[in-house]
Amino acid sequence: MKKLFALMMVSAFAVAIVACGGKKEAETTPEDTTAVAPAPDTTTVQDTTATAADTTAAQ
Description:
2 helices, about 40% helix, mainly alpha
């Protein structure tokens, strides 16, 4: 009787462990998020567009 009870307990534990294992999804870790380049700081961006020269002037 003790052996049967022990076998049932072991099988129940095995089923519980397998059921809770599940398939792992891709997890992001703090190391993974530091690999992404940070967004540029828009507060210090200077206007680098040049004014186009007037090309319609008569020659």
